[in-house]
Design goal:
971 residues; alpha+beta; Translation Initiation Factor IF3; Jelly Rolls; 5-stranded antiparallel β-sheet; 33 helices; globular
C-alpha cells in the first residue's frame, strides 16, 4: 500500500468504515432487499411509525390505543418516544421501512467510528484504531441482532460513551463530562436497558480503578475534580433524560416484568457451544436455530478470525489498567453468555442488581467482543515495535487457524448431502444445509488465512496488510451471515407500498366488535404482528414485551371475559354489572354475557340499556376519544382501553369519576339523556419534561460544537431544526379536516358523494343533496359504486374527508366507467372530479378471462376455482408494472371469498396470500366487482410459477364470474 493511499485512508476513516459496511450489507444498502422479518418489521417499524403518526398529527406520543388494549407508549423505552432521532425524523420525513433500513446501516457506521475513537484513545495508533473500528462495524453482534433495533442503537453509542468516560477519568473537564452525558442520554432514551446495566458495571470498575490510582499517589485534588465532574455528568444526563426517567419511575409499579425475572426466564436464548462455530464461520449457524440450538439472533459471535488471533497474542504482552478491567469484564461476559450451561450467569443474576431485568444471556457477548477488540488493538498498535520472536508467534497461530478451518471444511465436504436447493439467491443461501454453509463460508476464510500465513512467514505482515486481510475476511463472513438474520426476501418499496395503501391516520374507526380488528397479515402481507398500528383499529391483539400487569392478567387469565369483550366495540353501554367479589371467571358465557362489566362496587343508581340506546364515535385521536351517548336511563360506559394513571372522562364538559372495570379496562357512569362524552389521556408534566430534556440536550450539543470546526455546528443546527419542525410544525388532522370541510363548496348541478369517517360532522355542513358513505376498505367499494350507478349525468364529485379511496379503488372506478379526471389535495381532505367514460387503462394486457358466466364456490365441496398459472419470467416480458386481478361475485351471508395469489417453485410455496373480496356479514345479491392490485417488484424470482384462483373459506356459497388477470401500466 502506497504511503499516500495509507495517509488518505487514515485521514478519512469514516469513508473506509462506511464503504465496508455498505459492501458487506449490499442487499440492504442497494435497497433491493428489506430488513429481516421478525421484530424489525413486527415491532420496531410499527412502533416508530406510530410515533411519527402522532408527531405529524401535532402531538407528542402519549397513548398507543391500537394494540393490546392500549398502553402508555411514552413510558415504553423500546418506543422510543423520548429519543431525539426518533422525534426529529418521525415528525419530518416519517418512519418508513426505508428510514429504518438507512438507520440500521448508519448505526453500524456510527458504531465503527465510535470503536475507532475508543481504540485511538486507549492505544494512540491510527492504523489499529481504523482496523478495529471496521471490525466492530462488521461484527456479528450487529448482524445477529438486526431485528433488535434498540440493541443496534446501544451497540452504536456504547463505544462513544465509553471513550468519553475514559477521557473524563483521565483528565476531568466539562467537555468530556457533557459528551458522556449526551451519549448516555442516547442510550437511555433510544437503546436497550440491558446494555445500560452492563456498561454501568464496567464504568464502575474503571472508575474504581482510577480512584484507587489517585488514592495511592495521594492525588486527592484530582480525585475531588473527578468526583465533581462525574456529578456534572450525572446531573446533565438526568436533565437530558428526565422524561425517560420520569416515565420509567411512573410505569414500574404497573409492570410485572419490573419486579424481576426468574432465572429460567432470564436464561432463555443463550449463546451455545454449538454456536461457537460462528467465531470462525458465522454463516454456518443457519437461519432457523436448529444447528446452534438457540435463536439465530443470539448465535452470532463473529468478531473476525484475524482479530481473535491478535487478541490471543495479547496474552504474552503487558496490559494497561484499562485493558485489564475490560479484559476481565469481557471474560466474565463470555462465560455468562452461555446461560445455564455455566454457573456464571446464575451467579450474576443472583448477586448483581439489575441482572434480573433482562433475558437472553447472549447479550453478554457484547462485553466479550469489546474485550477482544481492545486486546487485539493493543497488539496491533505495538506490532511494528515487537521483537522478531513475538511476531513469529503469529505464523504459528495463523497456521493453526488454517489447519482448523481446513479440518472443518474437510468434515463439511464429507458430510454434504446433494446439491443446494434450486431457488433464487435468498432461498438458495438460507436453504443451504450446514455442510454447504461451512464450505461456502470457509473458502473465503481459508484464502485469507493462507495469505496471512505466507505474509507472516515472509515477514511482510504489516499493519496495512493486516487491515486489508481483516476487511476481506469480514466482508466475506458478514456478507454471507447477513442472509441468516439481516435480510428478508422482499423489496423495501413493496413493504412501503403496502403500508401507504392503508388509510391515513388517525381516522375514526367503526364501532365494531373488537374481535373483528384482528392482528394479522390481511392486506399487509410481509408484516405479521401489530398490523392494526397501520390499519387504525383498536384491538386486543398485538405483541409487546412491555405490557401492563393488569392487561396481561386479563388477556392471559380471563379467557371468557376477554371473548365477551371481543364481541363488543371500543365504547359501549351496559347495565349488566357485577361486583368483583361475585365474579367467577369460569362461569362467564361470552355469548350471553357479552355486555358483562366487572367492577369493585356496584353503583347505587338503577341502570337500564334498551334497543334505542346508542353510542356514536364522533372523534378519535390517539389519546382522546369523543362520543355521543344516547340512553333513556343511566348506564355504564365501558372503554376498552387499559387503565393507567392519566385517564379522564368528561360528560358534557364536566369530569366524572373514572371507574376501573373488567380487570384491566375502565369506564364511567353516564346519566340518562343525550350527552357528549370525552375520554382523554393527559400527562400535564410531560410537555415540561420534554422541554427540559430538549433544552438540556441542545445546550450541551451547542457547547460541544462551539469552537469545533464548521461541520459540528451545522449538524447540531440541522438536528435542532428538524426537532423544532417535528414538535411544532404540525396541526391535528381533525382540525385540518374541519378547515377543509368549511372550504369545500359543491359545484352547481353536480352530484357529490362524500366518503368520510365522520358523518356527524360532515352532514350539518352540506346542502342536503349529497350522498354520505363510508368506503374504508376494498370490500366497501360496492357501496360507492352503487351510489355512482344512480348518477344521471356524466360527471360527479367525490370528496374524501377523513378517508381516502382504498387500494385499487381508482382502478376499479375506471373499470366501471368512472375515471378520475382531476384530483385536488387540500391540507387533509381530497377532492376528486369523476367523469363517466369507457374504461381506458393505459398499457392494459389481458392475460386470462376465466370462469365464464359464473361458478359456485362452496367449502368443503368445491372451495376453490381452477388456478390460472404463469411463470414469473414470462410475466416479466409483458408490458406493465401492476398485476391486476378482478372478477364479479355474488355471496350469501357468511361466505368468505378470497383471491389467492400463490408462488411456487420445485414443490415449495415461498409465498401465499389470500385477499378478502367480500364482507362476510353482508349479502351481495347482484354481481359485484372486486379488484386486487399487486406491484411487479413483488415478483422477484423469474423461475417461480404464479398461481391465481378464487377460494371460499366458508360453507356459505360464493358465486364468481369473469375472473380476469391483466398487466397495467401505472400512471
Amino acid at each position: 500500500m502506497s504511503v499516500k493511499l495509507r495517509a488518505a485512508l487514515l485521514r478519512h476513516p469514516w469513508t473506509v468504515i462506511a464503504v465496508a459496511v455498505l459492501l458487506a450489507y449490499w442487499p440492504l444498502s442497494s435497497f433491493t432487499y428489506t430488513l429481516t422479518h421478525g421484530d424489525t418489521l413486527d415491532c420496531w417499524l410499527p412502533w416508530r411509525f406510530f410515533i411519527a403518526t402522532c408527531l405529524q398529527d401535532g402531538h407528542f406520543p402519549l397513548w398507543q390505543p391500537l394494540q393490546q388494549m392500549g398502553y402508555p407508549i411514552y413510558a415504553d423505552l423500546q418506543g422510543p418516544a423520548w429519543y431525539v432521532e426518533a422525534i426529529a425524523l418521525g415528525g419530518t420525513i416519517g418512519h418508513s421501512i426505508l428510514t429504518l433500513q438507512a438507520l440500521f446501516l448508519g448505526y453500524m457506521i456510527v458504531g465503527g467510528l465510535g470503536m475507532r475513537r475508543l481504540i485511538l484513545h486507549m492505544h494512540r495508533h491510527e492504523g489499529a484504531a481504523l482496523i478495529i473500528g471496521m471490525a466492530y462495524g462488521l461484527g456479528g453482534f450487529f448482524t445477529g441482532h438486526t431485528m433488535h433495533f434498540y440493541s443496534v442503537i446501544s451497540a452504536a453509542w456504547l463505544p462513544w460513551a465509553l471513550e468519553a468516560q475514559l477521557r473524563l477519568m483521565k483528565a476531568p473537564h466539562w467537555r468530556p463530562a457533557l459528551t458522556a452525558a449526551v451519549f448516555q442520554y442516547f442510550l437511555l432514551s433510544g437503546g436497550n436497558h440491558t446494555f445500560t446495566i452492563l456498561s454501568a458495571y464496567l464504568l464502575a470498575a474503571l472508575l474504581a480503578v482510577r480512584m484507587v490510582q489517585h488514592w495511592r499517589s495521594n492525588s486527592f485534588t484530582e480525585m475531588r475534580r473527578l468526583i465533581g465532574h462525574e456529578l456534572l455528568f450525572a446531573l446533565a444526563t438526568a436533565l437530558m433524560a428526565c422524561g425517560t426517567l420520569y416515565a420509567t419511575w411512573e410505569v414500574v409499579p404497573h409492570l410485572e416484568r419490573a419486579k424481576g425475572l426468574s432465572h429460567p426466564e432470564a436464561a432463555v436464548f443463550p449463546f451455545t457451544m454449538r454456536a461457537c462455530i460462528s467465531l470462525l464461520l458465522p454463516f454456518a449457524v443457519g437461519a432457523d436455530g436448529r444447528m446452534p440450538g438457540t435463536d439465530p439472533a443470539m448465535a452470532n459471535g463473529y468478531m473476525g478470525v484475524l482479530v481473535l488471533l491478535f487478541a490471543g497474542s495479547a496474552l504474552v504482552r503487558k496490559w494497561g489498567p484499562e485493558e485489564k478491567v475490560i479484559a476481565g469484564f469481557g471474560g466474565l461476559c463470555f462465560a455468562a453468555a452461555f446461560g445455564t450451561a455455566l454457573p456464571v450467569h446464575h451467579a450474576l443474576w443472583a448477586a448483581l442488581p439489575g441482572m434480573d431485568l433482562f433475558r437472553s444471556p447472549a447479550y453478554f457477548l457484547w462485553g466479550a467482543q469489546l474485550a477482544v477488540l481492545c486486546l487485539a488493538a493493543g497488539t496491533l498498535a505495538r506490532w511494528s515495535t515487537l521483537d522478531v520472536q513475538r511476531r513469529r508467534r503469529m505464523r504459528w497461530m495463523c497456521g493453526i487457524a488454517l489447519l482448523m478451518v481446513s479440518g472443518v471444511m474437510a468434515w463439511a465436504f464429507i458430510h454434504r448431502e446433494g446439491r443446494p436447493i434450486d431457488a433464487g439467491l435468498y432461498h438458495r443461501l438460507r436453504g443451504s444445509d450446514t455442510a454447504h454453509r461451512v464450505m461456502l463460508n470457509g473458502i473465503g476464510l481459508w484464502l485469507v488465512l493462507t495469505v496471512a500465513c505466507l505474509a507472516a512467514w515472509s515477514d511482510r505482515l504489516t499493519v496495512a496488510v493486516i487491515g486489508t486481510l481483516v476487511l476481506l475476511e469480514m466482508l466475506w463472513g458478514t456478507g454471507l451471515a447477513a442472509w441468516n438474520t439481516s435480510v428478508a426476501d422482499v423489496h423495501p418499496l413493496v413493504v412501503k407500498a403496502r403500508i401507504d395503501a392503508q388509510q391515513p391516520l388517525p381516522f375514526i374507526p367503526r364501532l365494531e366488535p373488537m374481535g373483528k380488528a384482528t392482528d394479522d397479515q390481511a392486506g399487509l402481507r410481509h408484516l405479521w404482528r401489530n398490523t392494526q398500528v397501520f390499519k387504525g383499529h383498536p384491538t386486543h391483539g398485538g405483541f409487546n414485551t412491555f405490557q401492563l400487569t393488569h392487561t396481561k392478567t386479563l388477556l392471559d387469565g380471563h379467557a371468557g371475559l376477554v371473548e365477551a369483550m371481543a364481541r363488543m366495540p371500543l365504547l359501549y353501554l351496559s347495565d349488566h354489572l357485577i361486583p368483583l367479589a361475585r365474579y367467577v371467571p369460569e362461569e362467564v358465557d361470552p355469548e350471553n354475557d357479552s355486555a358483562l362489566v366487572v367492577v369493585d362496587a356496584l353503583p347505587v343508581v338503577p341502570m337500564r340499556v334498551d334497543k334505542a340506546s346508542r353510542v356514536e364515535l364522533i372523534g378519535f385521536e390517539h389519546d382522546r376519544f369523543s362520543a355521543l351517548v344516547m340512553n333513556d336511563a343511566p348506564a355504564f360506559l365501558l372503554v376498552q382501553q387499559a387503565w393507567f394513571p392519566g385517564w379522564h372522562i368528561l360528560v358534557d364538559g364536566t369530569e366524572v369519576p373514572v371507574v376501573r372495570a373488567n380487570i384491566a379496562a375502565f369506564g364511567a357512569l353516564v346519566p340518562a339523556g343525550t350527552h357528549r362524552v370525552v375520554v382523554t389521556f393527559r400527562k400535564p408534566l410531560v410537555p415540561w419534561l420534554l422541554a427540559v430534556s430538549m433544552l438540556a440536550l441542545f445546550t450541551a450539543l451547542g457547547l460541544l460544537a462551539w469552537k469545533a470546526g464548521r461541520i459540528r455546528p451545522l449538524a447540531v443546527a440541522l438536528l435542532l431544526l428538524l426537532t423544532l419542525l417535528a414538535l411544532f410544525g404540525h396541526r391535528p388532522r381533525s382540525v385540518r379536516l374541519e378547515e377543509d370541510l368549511a372550504s369545500l363548496s359543491p359545484p352547481p348541478g353536480l352530484p357529490v358523494i362524500v366518503n368520510t369517517d365522520r358523518p356527524g360532522s360532515v352532514k350539518p355542513t352540506l346542502r342536503g343533496g349529497e350522498a354520505v358513505l363510508r368506503c374504508e376498505r376494498p370490500t366497501d367499494m360496492p357501496v360507492l359504486l352503487g351510489h355512482l350507478n344512480t348518477v344521471q349525468g356524466s360527471q360527479a364529485e367525490l370528496w374524501s374527508i377523513g378517508l381516502e379511496l382504498p387500494d385499487g379503488g381508482a382502478e376499479l372506478l375506471d373499470d366501471r366507467g368512472w375515471r378520475i379526471e382531476e384530483r385536488e389535495e387540500l391540507t387533509a381532505a381530497v377532492r376528486h372530479r369523476l367523469v363517466r367514460q369507457p374504461p381506458a387503462h393505459p398499457g392494459t394486457r389481458l392475460l386470462i378471462d376465466a370462469l365464464g358466466g359464473g361458478k359456485a364456490i362452496c367449502s368443503p365441496d368445491a372451495p376453490w376455482s381452477p388456478a390460472y398459472r404463469i411463470v414469473v419470467g414470462d410475466l416479466a416480458r409483458i408490458e406493465g408494472d401492476v398485476l391486476a386481478i378482478d372478477l364479479e361475485y355474488r355471496s350469501a351471508p357468511g361466505a368468505r371469498g378470497m383471491i389467492v395469489i400463490q408462488r411456487e417453485r420445485e414443490g415449495r410455496v415461498p409465498f401465499y396470500e389470500a385477499v378478502p373480496i367480500n364482507d362476510p356479514h353482508r349479502s351481495d345479491t347482484t354481481w359485484t366487482p372486486a379488484l386486487v392490485l399487486r406491484r411487479r417488484r413483488e415478483l422477484r424470482d423469474a423461475q417461480e410459477e404464479l398461481a391465481i384462483y378464487v377460494w371460499n373459506g366458508a360453507a356459505d356459497t360464493l358465486w364468481a364470474r369473469n375472473l380476469r388477470v391483466r398487466m397495467l401500466r401505472s400512471e
